[in-house]
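Hi all, long-time lurker, first post. I run a small reading group and we've been trying to get comfortable going from sequence to structure in the token notation. Rather than ask abstract questions, I figured I'd post a concrete chain and ask someone more experienced to write out its structure so we can walk through it together at our next meeting. Sequence below, copied exactly:
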Amino acid sequence: MYQQIIDLPVDVEVSAYCDSMSGQDAEFHLPLPPVSGVSYYVHIDAAIPSTDSFELIHNRISNTLKLGDSMLIIPTATANCIQFGEPCEVIKLSYAGPSPQLNSSFASLKFMAVGTPTVAG
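-- Answer (accepted) --
Happy to help. Here is the structure in token form:
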């Protein structure tokens, strides 16, 4: 598994490879703090081949997505994932197409924060 530290000042795109032949999944640990007025989404921005399906899992919620689909991520800030001393979110990406798969699948994901934060007081 490849690990990379990501700062999210704006929308961020990352790439992940999934291979059903070897059972390889991608796992992301993202610092997504719960912020009132802000929603987080994971969007499948590119897929090779474009007809492939991917399973995104966050907080035991699973959605099968294809190219152009998005999934709402609701931060839970649990102690299951700690990064830099702060809670983070674990998002898993798996290949969801037919098996056996002869070639690796590729997906480019975009993590987006949407909305305007509200500050009490």
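A couple of things your group might point at:
Residues 1-8 have pLDDT under 50 and may be disordered.
Strands lie at 12-18, 26-30, 38-48, 54-58, 61-65, 70-73, 82-83, 86-87, 89-95, 105-115.
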